[in-house]
Structure formats: structure tokens, C-alpha cells
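Can you give me the bound-state structure? Components:
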Amino acid sequence: MGEDGVVLRHPLSSRIMHFVNMVCWYVLFATGALVYFKLVGGSEAALLMKIHILFGLILTVVVLSYVVMAPDRVFLFLQEILNWDRDTIAWWKNFGGYPYRFLGKTRFYRYIEKFWFAKPGCPPQSKYNAGQKFLGILVVFSLAVLGASGWLLFLFRQALGKDGVWLFFNAHVWIAIVVTVFVTFVHIPLVIINWPDFVSMFRIGSGTVPVSWAREHNPKWFEREVVELAESMKSGKP
Amino acid sequence: MRWFVEKPASLRITRRGFLKVFGVTVAALAVGVYKVTDLFVHRNKYIKMRQRGQYEDDERVRKTYRLAASQQNPMIKRFYDEFAVQPFGDVSESLLHTTYFRRTGGF
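Here's the bound-state model for the whole set.
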């Protein structure tokens, strides 16, 4: 923990939402994939589909509850992921310096160092960097499409007609596969590399990161949107 | 130790952010709801087109031959007398009934 204090990055409501979303997403993906790719028999598939519907219901209730009970968090999250300024665009020029970070000390780097995507450095980012904003948009979009298509297929299959069933079923399956692959092989490894952010999301306790870490990774957020908590309010730690 | 927190939402929601979030949300909902209702409204489009065409053909024949009812159509009567045996029979069902699926794969 940094010498100069901590900053609350993920409030409890957001962490509960993230945790439930993570668990439900992977259960839904596993049950759906086993049935779609015919990796189980008929009776097992029927049971897995019941589990699929149950976790779909849990995820739907939790997401809608989050929207109703923490509308300010939802709004600020949407505002943040939709705010693409000059520094956000600049991040994509070298992917925030990640290629350099991974390959900069290897022999392979000399072959790619002249390319724009391999340059070092990272423009100042707000609460989420450009890649996280992209992921945020992807997850919000996919939650909406998967939720809508899933419940329409479950409740109103007959009313959709053949074209509607074909469209919603394929959208449901392939959006889920693409987003799961992206989250599993990009989001999770990168957030584990950024260990303080990972810890603030999952540890038992407050969702804080060291101020020094926030200053380095999210300077625009720390300077513009964060204030120091008054001495009198510290007893009830956030 | 010093503690820092985010400013309250009332100080962080900007006019531009408000318009952006509501604009994108409303646009996404409008497009989504339009697409779903459009699919719902047109789900039987080709079945209804075929039905309408058959009723129009039937009406045209009845006007031409001055018939009171469809079953008096001489072509239909000859079709069943000489070929299809009876309505809802195996021959008539195999020839007259259709199924609906995408036929654009070869184009």
C-alpha cells in the first residue's frame, strides 16, 4: 500500500455487480457451450438448460437491481466508457505501451520497433483506459443483446417466426463466444498484470488502490474526479 | 493514512455526458425495439402473401365463371376427380402443401 494513502476505485455495489456478473457469465457460457456443441446427451442437456435459465434469471435480476439501486454508478460508468477524448484515441496508437512492455526487452523487438504500435509510453488516461472503455462498451452491449435475445427465445419463441429465431439464436451464441474469448484471453490476463486493480476488485475489504498507482495509471481521473475524504468522515471507511 | 474518494455524481455528470449517455441509450433501445417489433410484425409475411395470392386467384376464377363458391371451380373439381382423389388426401397434400425456409442459399 502506498505511503501517501489510498483511493476508493470500486465501491461495494460495483464489486458485487462485477462478481455476480463474472460467476453467472461463465456458468452461462459453460452450460450453453456444452449444449450448443453437443458435448452432452439429451437428458444432461435438458438439465444444463435449466441451470442456464436459472443463472440467466439471477444475472438479469442483479443487473436490473444494480440499475435501479445504483443509477448514479451506472450513469457514471456509461459516461466514462463513452467519453473518448484525444488521449483515448492516442492510447490505441501503441495500445497503451503494452506491446513494448511485453516485447521491449526481447530480441524480437528489433523487428517491430519501427512500427507505431510498438512505441513505448502511454498517454494520460481517466478512470478506465481506452482498452477498458472498449471492453465496457462491449460488455454493456453484449449483456443487453444476450439478455434480450435469451429471454425472447425462451418466452416468445413461437411469436418470433423462423427468421427471428434464427437471428436471435445466432446472435446469442456467437456474441457470447466472441466476448467470452476476449474477456478470458485479454481482459483477465491484463487485469492480473495490473495487480492493485485486481486486488481492489476482489479482496475482502474496501475496493481501494494506492494513490501512487492511481496517479500513474489514471492521472486524469485522480486529478479531476477524486477528492480527499475529510478527517471527520474517516471513521466509517468507505 | 489519507483516504480519497470520487466526487459525488452530481458534481461529475456533465451536460455533454448527460446528453451522450441518454442519446446512446435511447438510440440503442429504439433500434432494438424497432428490430424486435419489426420481426414480430413480419414473422408470417410470406405465408400471408401466399394466402392472399391464393384468395385473389380464387376470386378471379369465380368472377370469370360466375361461381357462387370455390368448390364449384371446374378446374378444382377435375383436379380431384381425375388426379388427387380427395381434399386432404395424400396426393393433394404432397402437391399442394408447402414449407417455408430460406431459398436464397443458391443466389
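A couple of observations. Chain A has two domains: 11-83+126-193, 89-122. Chain A has a mean pLDDT of 90.
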